[in-house]
């Protein structure tokens, strides 16, 4: 990919609300060149979606996020892909990653309650043929996501010491 398009991708990753006009100014290009490059990146599947990062802890809505380590037996001829596809098609599943190490897939899911997540693991994920084992880890607090720090780093949280 040419450097011009890489620069556009980086700028949009930092802030998806940047307009082609602003990006053009930042890169010293014309708005038309930037808009055309963005269309090409979208058509090629490089830019897949424009998303908002939400700090759900500040929204009065209960959410439970779990990271599930899954060990599987790969399928002959398709490896891990067939099982990963079966898993990522569930609407609860937010992300699926093929991993190196002691487990094969890392599955991120969201539910409204711990019981909802437990039900997903026991009734949808574990019964899949070729799933050997699962280990569920619940997210207690998010400090940073996609490069965004949720806590105010400027706050001084040191304890006062008096003489």
From TrEMBL:
Organism of this sequence: Paenibacillus xerothermodurans
One family name in Pfam for this protein: AsnC_trans_reg
Keywords: DNA-binding, Transcription, Transcription regulation
Name of the protein in question: Lrp/AsnC family transcriptional regulator
Lineage, broadest ranks: Bacteria, Bacillati, Bacillota, Bacilli, Bacillales
Annotated ranges, domain HTH asnC-type: 1-81
Cross-referenced Gene3D superfamilies: 3.30.70.920, Winged helix-like DNA-binding domain superfamily/Winged helix DNA-binding domain
GO terms of molecular function: sequence-specific DNA binding
């Amino acid at each position: 990919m040419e450097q011009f398009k890489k620069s556009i991708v980086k700028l949009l990753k930092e802030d998806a609300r940047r307009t082609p006009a602003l990006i053009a100014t930042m890169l010293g290009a014309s708005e038309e060149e930037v808009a055309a490059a963005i269309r090409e990146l979208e058509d090629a599947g490089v830019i897949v979606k424009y998303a908002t990062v939400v700090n759900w802890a500040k929204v009065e809505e209960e959410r439970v996020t779990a990271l599930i380590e899954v060990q599987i037996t790969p399928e002959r001829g398709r490896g891990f892909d067939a099982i990963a596809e079966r898993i990522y098609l569930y609407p609860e599943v937010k992300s699926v990653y093929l991993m190196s190490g002691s487990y094969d897939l890392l599955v991120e899911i969201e539910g409204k309650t711990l019981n909802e997540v437990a039900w997903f693991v026991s009734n949808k994920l574990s019964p899949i043929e070729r799933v050997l084992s699962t280990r569920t880890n619940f997210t207690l607090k998010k400090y940073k996501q996609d490069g965004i720090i949720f806590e105010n780093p400027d706050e001084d949280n040191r304890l006062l010491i008096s003489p």
